[in-house]
Amino acid sequence: MSKLSIVVPVYWNSDTLMLLYEDMKEKILHKLEDYEIVFVDDGSGDNSWEIMNRIREMDQKVKLVKLSRNFGEHAAILAGLSNCTGDCAVTKQADLQEDSELILEMYEKWKEGNKVVLAVRSDRDEGAVQKFFANLYYTLMRKLVIKDMPKGGFDCYLLDRQVIQVLLMLDEKNSALTLQVLWVGFQSDKVYFHRKAREIGESRWTLSKKVKLVMDSMMSFSYFPVRFMSGLGVSFAVIAVIWAIVLVIERLRGIEDVAGWTSMMVLMLFGFGVIMVMLGLLGEYIWRALDASRNRPPFLVDETKGFEDKN
Description:
alpha/beta, eight-stranded mixed β-sheet, 50% helix
């Protein structure tokens, strides 16, 4: 009899947690051979932890992990994966935007022999601007980072125990867990769903977190930033040589006016700006190397409940 772990990262989700559990209980839990639900409190500032304990009182198959502070969703999922005991584990968002039945579809794909199952968005109930930037991100990932990135992107996925062990072994910081899932390979499949609009609560997925995700994705899985800097540097070197030849020719021809002073200054200022940007990108790489060398754990667990019998 196989056991499924459902890992739910929690961050300021006190208004949806009970609804989420009741929805899963009504639709899927009674259809599973064996299961456990692992709620991971990622430093929530509301009463999410109290509600998680209330749910555990209702169902002893609910297990809890509380992190010492907010480490981010990817770290929270890793914490859940490192503590879960199932033969496979599926991630579930706590915002009620994905139907719970999706878990059953992914579970059936796993039974067919797939070790990674992705829940890919076929469409989403969001504004045009949000859709544009989301699609832009996934297009960049597919073109520049990992060609296997699904067109609609994914947040939820099911992993076999073997894949979980590989992800825990990687122990990468400042990285994107979804890209690690694609990178490890293994036999995989996809299920498609329509992502609903969020009706309860407020998203904590801020612009700064989105920018960090883009930076982490590009720098952890692609040489593109370095190649871009090299290409830009070569381009400016070629332009400088051509411009120098033009100036020498004008000097030999006796043309010594300063008509091009403004354009020259603009070019110099633009060049300095490019240099600063490239130094900033190099600084990002140096910071990531420093952070990795410190060997700090990606998360710290403050408290757990329900794992007493963990093998």
